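Final report, Chapter 2: Outcomes

The project's central promise was a pipeline that accepts a single protein chain and returns its three-dimensional structure in a standardized token representation, suitable for archiving and comparison. That pipeline is now operational. To close this chapter, we reproduce one record exactly as it appears in the project archive, with the input sequence first and the structure output second.
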Amino acid sequence: MQVTIILDSGGFLLDESRDKPYLDVGYFQSPGASDIEVLEDGKQVQPPPDVKLGTDNDTIDVEHLASDGTTVKTGVIRSPSFNRDILLKTDLYDKAQVPAFIVSAYDCVLRFHSGTFESFDVTDRHFTEHRVGDDGHTGVVIKTTRPIANDVLVQYDLGKGEILRLRRSDGKEVWSSTSAGSGTSLVEVKLLAGSATNSSYHKSALRHVGPNYYLPNSDPPPMDSQGGGGGG
């Protein structure tokens, strides 16, 4: 079974995860009744009702379990497309004013212990400039110098008896591939976001050192940590 987790947005905490065997992604809940949308072989299925990832800054582990049911596979791979297409803070801010992430501001942090990260839906992006002090629009609109990924895909290939799950720190599962119907070969789990979370991702979760911040023209695209390079 192939499982793809689709990140509709997120703060990729690359610096904070440096030299760690995992990659953390800050996330804000979607405004809707559920934070996830599940497709099995291209057909939308009904996830458990009101699946919300929480607002208590909990760490939710994304784990690929080996067939023994306990061993968590490790190995995060950042593909060339991810390194090329992810929104960098330096796409928006001068180097002297690049804001740091405020990890404690996120509703939760998704901790990926493995998976291959790839960009998806890459397109030109426009951002409007706003004042940090009063949120007023300055009238400035900037366009990124390169296309930006609207989504990031995290790919997994599950062998016989292997499981992919999202698990809270208290051990409770949010979602598991065991919920897929018999014979399913492709599962897509989309973690939802939307324009209502723009300010959360692009203002509230950033420690601004300059007078202005920038909001995207639609859904908040995933953003990297400090504008640094790639790696695998």
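Archive annotation: The CA atoms of residues 68 and 152 lie 29 Å apart.
This record, like all others produced under the grant, will remain available to the consortium after the project formally closes.
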